[in-house]
Amino acid sequence: MQSKTNRQWILSRRPEGDIKDGDLVLKESPIPKPGEGEVLVRTTYLSLDPTNRIWMSDMDQYMDPVNVGDAMRGVSSGEVVESRSAAFKPGDKVMTLGSWSDYYTAPAAALQHAPKLPGLDFRDIFGIFYLVGPTAYFGLVDIGAPKIGETLVVSTAAGAVGSIVGQLGKALGCRVVGIAGGRDKCAWITGELGFDAAIDYKSENVAAALKKHCPAGIDVYFDNVGGDILDAVIGQMNLFGRVAECGLISMYNATGIVHGPGNYPRILMKRLKIQGFIVIDYMARYPEAFRALYALYQQGKLKWKLHEVQGLENADKAVRLLYTGGNTGKLLVKVS
Ligand SMILES: NC(=O)c1ccc[n+]([C@@H]2O[C@H](COP(=O)([O-])OP(=O)(O)OC[C@H]3O[C@@H](n4cnc5c(N)ncnc54)[C@H](OP(=O)(O)O)[C@@H]3O)[C@@H](O)[C@H]2O)c1
After folding, report:
1. In this structure, which residue's CA is closest to atom 47 in ligand 1?
2. What contacts 321, CB < 8 A, 6 or more positions away?
3. What is the DSSP string of 134-170?
4. 4 CA to centre of ligand 1 in angstroms
5. Which CATH architecture is the domain 132-281+291-295 placed in?
6. Could you read off the pLDDT of 208-230 as tens digits, one per residue?
7. Looking at ligand 1, which residue's alpha carbon is closest to its atom 37?
8. Residue with the nearest Cα to atom 45 of ligand 1?
9. Alpha-carbon torsion 249, 48, 194, 129, what sign?
10. 3 CB neighbour count, 10 Å cutoff
C-alpha cells in the first residue's frame, strides 16, 4: 500500500572527515507529483556506494556535488507508481540515479528498465549487474586489458566491484591476487571466488606480500583505494603495466593534503599507463558487460554477496560501513 508521506535523507552539512550523525537528516514531506514526461517511483532498494562521500563534499569531481539542503543522491531501484510518459507504466521495475528517499520523480529519459537476465532476482540484477558489473568489466577489459598468464592485482577485493574484477580476471586467464581487510574476507576470495592469493592489508606488509604472491611482477592493477596500497603496487609493476584507476576510497575521508605515490618515477621507468574512468561513460555499452557477466554466471564462474541493510532510516549509518570495511560484497538498503 502507498504511504502518504515521503521520507528523504537531506544533506544538512558537508562532512568533515568521516560522516557523522547530523550530516544527513531524515525529513518527511508529501509524496511528489510527476510532471509531464515524468514518472513517480517507489524505491525498493537503495545502493550505497563509496562515491556517496564524494558527492557530499564540494571537491572538484565528476558530477555536481549534492547541495546542502537537497535530498542525498543515490543509485536506486524501484517500481513505477504513476507515469506521465508513454515509456513506463505502473508496476515497471526501473533503475536510476535517484535519491535516498521512499519516493522520487524523474524524467522518463533518466530511468532504465531492469535488464532481462532470466533466473536472477531483481535485487541481484540491481546490485551486481546495473553498475558494479559494468565498472568491473570495462575497467578491467578496456583499461587493464589483461592477457592470458599476466598477473592482476585488485584492491577492495572482497567488496562489490573488486570481487567481480577478480573473478573476471580468472576467467580471462590471469593470476589474480586480491588485497582486502581481514582474514574472513581473504578466505572468501581465495576459498570461494577462486583468487590465487589474498593479502590482508590490515595485518600484512603489502609490499612484502606482493613480492611473495606476484613472483613475476604485476602487469595489471585495478585500483580501488589509492594511497599507500597504490604506491606499493606501482613499486612492483612490470614494463608496460596498466593501472585501471577506479576508486580512491582510502582518500575519500581525508581532511589534509593527500600526497601522490612515492614510487611515481617507476611510471616513467616502466612505461606504465594509468587511466581513470567513470562507469557512466560506458553506459551505451552496458549490454556488452551484461552479456559477458551473465554468461560467466551461467557457467558457475561468477559469484557475489549482497550485504543488505533493512530500512531507509538506517541508510546514514549503513553508508559508513563502506569506509570501515564493515561490508562484504555489495551494500544495499531495502527500502520497501
Ligand atoms: N570509477 C567508477 O565508475 C566506480 C564505480 C563504482 C565504484 N567505484 C570505486 O570502486 C571502489 C570500490 O567500490 P565498491 O562499491 O565496490 O565498494 P566496496 O568495495 O563494496 O566497499 C568499500 C570497501 O573499501 C574498503 N576500504 C575502505 N577504506 C579503505 C582503506 N582506507 N584502505 C583500503 N580499503 C578500504 C573496505 O574493504 P576492506 O575491508 O577490504 O578494507 C570496504 O568494504 C571505490 O573506490 C569506489 O569509489 C568506482
Report:
1. 247
2. 48, 307, 327, 331
3. HHHHHIIIIII---TT-EEEEESTTBHHHHHHHHHHH
4. 36
5. 3-Layer(aba) Sandwich (3.40)
6. 999 999 999 999 999 999 999 99
7. 325
8. 247
9. negative
10. 12
Residue-wise pLDDT tens digits, 313-328: 999 999 999 999 999 9
What's the topology of domain 5-114+305-334? Quinone Oxidoreductase; Chain A, domain 1 (3.90.180)
Reference 11, options 225, 20, 289; nearest CA is 20
Least trusted range by pLDDT, from 99-108, 201-210, 223-232, 249-258 = 249-258
Query: From CA 96, how far away is CA 107, in angstroms rounded?
Result: 10
Q: Which amino acid is at 160?
A: A
The CA distance from 30 to 32, in Å, is 6
Which atom of ligand 1 approaches the CA of 328 most closely?
43
Name the residue of 156, 225, 277, 281 to mutate for ligand 1: max ligand atoms within 8 A of Cβ: 156
Q: Could you state, in order of their start, the residue ranges of all structural domains in the chain?
A: 5-114+305-334, 132-281+291-295
**What is the Å distance from ligand 1's center to 322 Cα?**
7
Atom of ligand 1 nearest to the CA of 158: 40
Give the burial string for 228-240 (b: 16+ CB within 10 Å, else e): ebbbbbbbbbbee
Cα–ligand 1 centroid distance for 323 (angstroms): 8
Q: How far is CA 45 from the centre of its chain?
A: 15
